Amino acid sequence: MATNAILSEEEAMKRTPQPVSGSAERISARRWQAVVDRDTSLDGAFVFGVSSTGIFCRPSCPAKRTRRENVRFFDHALQAERAGYRACLRCRPKAVDGNPQSALVRAMCRYIEQHIEDRLTLGLLAKEFRRSPFHLQRTFKSVLGVSPKAYIDAVRLRQVKQNLQAGHDVTTALYAAGYGSSSRLYERTATQLGMTPEKYRRGAVAAVVRYTIANSPLGRMLIAATDKGICSIQFADRSAENDDQLQQGLMREFPFATRRRDDAAMSQWRSALASLIQGQETNAALPLDIRATAFQRKVWQSLQKIPRGETRSYSAVAKKIGMPKATRAVARACATNPVAVAIPCHRVIREDGDLGGYRWGIDRKEQLLALEKQL
Ligand SMILES: [Zn+2]
User: Fold this and answer.
1) DSSP code of 288?
2) For residue 260, how many C-alpha atoms fall within 13 Å in the half-sphere facing its CB?
3) Strands, DSSP E only, in 15-173?
4) Ligand 1 centroid vs 104 CA: distance in angstroms?
5) What distance in angstroms lies between residue 290's CA and the mean position of ligand 1's atoms?
6) Ligand 1 mean position, distance from CA 226 (Å)
7) From the CA of 48, how far away is ligand 1's center (Å)?
8) How far, in Å, is the centroid of ligand 1 from the Cα of 94?
9) Under DSSP, is residue 58 helix (H, G, I), strand (E, B) or coil?
10) What is the pLDDT of residues 293-329, one digit of tens each?
């Protein structure tokens, strides 16, 4: 089984709806799209040469676009130069590598991507990187050709698109991309998306979510997965009515995905989960395909390091992730864990030994912990 993966935003950013691998033509097509879109997030990933001018540019170059047939793609600036192209003076495609300015900008880009759900301002970035806002703004713009704000917008928009394509509802998609209120997004992104998010979502290709419902030591267990990994694990008591509720819950979670019950295809996950619960596979690392804010990711990754048979307090987890004051936010992150057991939020209890809460019922938490202590 693949390595455990709570997708970071950065990784999620690299993901595109299309398969990543592909023929050279497919890669060229995607690169051309990035050039047309002036996609700043692919700066550094490749450059393109324009045969009619003999100049090569980064994907985000603000210069006017030429026709597709005049364009050649190169993985590195060096290759473009070897092929006889000169670097564009406007977008400075060589600046991406090997100078301290671009290292700073690259670090800023990563920071922005990883904190996209926060309220990112130039002032905040200046504090984080210990430079004046003016210096940051100027450096960023000279290296990337766009302002930090424009970059933040682009990252957000991309995140929203991915969230919508993944089948999340508009409010969730916006919230996870750092838009405080949806009204603000509607104003802004209707123009950026070229349509309302609602309409974009309807047009997006629906993701396929396969699921199964089976018996487990903890009652009925629903496991759902995309082709990239498990996206939901839920529990309920044994009854036909509860099975319906599990399915309705899945529908609420992925309202726009194509949901398919597929007991056969899911049997592999079912047995993996069973051994995980029974402790036969203590280090089972299940590939997960879940959306997380930077904070949730931090908490959830920290939970995965709590050894079987042990517990931690909410405040201990908060300290562990370097945010000692965030005890309540940690509890919230535990309560919003989409994959029971795989992310062992049941191993977090209150400081006084009280079990605290559990999304799938306190009895189940108790049972799980007892089971883990035994084995
Ligand atoms: Zn250029």
Assistant:
1) B
2) 13
3) 47-50, 55-57, 71-74, 86-87
4) 21
5) 37
6) 39
7) 9
8) 10
9) coil
10) 778 888 998 998 998 889 999 999 999 998 888 888 8
pLDDT, residue 54, reads 93
Give 92-133 pLDDT, tens digit per residue.
887 655 456 677 888 888 888 878 877 888 999 999 888 899
The single-letter code of the amino acid at 220 is: R
Confidence of residue 184 (pLDDT cuts 50, 70, 90): low
Phi, psi of 201, deg, nearest 5: -60, -45
List for the chain the helix, strand, coil content (%; round to 5). 50, 15, 35
Contacts of 58 (CB under 8 A, 6+ apart): 43, 44, 47, 88, 91, 92, 93, 96, 145
Query: What residues are annotated to the active site?
Result: 57, 345
Assign 6 to helix, strand or coil: coil
Structure tokens at 106: 């690259």
Closest CA to 314 of 293, 301, 329: 329
Q: Judge whether residue 2 has pLDDT over 50.
A: no
CB 156 within 8 A of CB 41: no
Strand partners, 73: 48
Give the tokens for residue 70.
Answer: 């005049």
Tokens of 375: 């084995």
3-state secondary structure at position 134? helix
For tokens 């009619």, what's the residue?
Answer: 52
The residues, ordered by sequence, that sit 6+ positions from 291 with a Cβ below 8 Å of its Cβ are 7, 12, 163, 166, 168, 176
Is the pTM here over 0.85, yes or no?
no
CA–CA separation, 334 and 318 (whole Å): 12
Q: Could you tell me the distance, in angstroms and rounded to a whole number, from the CA of residue 156 to the centre of ligand 1?
A: 24
The answer to whether 276 and 286 are in contact (CB under 8 A) is yes
Of 26, 30, 24, 55, nearest in space to 42 by CA: 30
How would you list the strands of the sheet with 208-216, edge to edge? 229-236, 219-226, 208-216, 258-261
pLDDT tens sequence across 147-180? 898 888 888 888 887 777 777 777 777 777 777 6
- Look up residue 274 and give its two tokens: 């069973």
Residue 91 CA to ligand 1 center (angstroms) comes to 4
Q: Over the stretch 123-142, which tens digit does the pLDDT of each residue have?
A: 999 998 888 999 888 888 87
In contact, 9 and 112? CB cutoff 8 Å: no
Sort strands 312-313 and 258-261 into parallel, antiparallel or unpaired.
unpaired
- Look at residue 62 and give its three-state secondary structure: coil
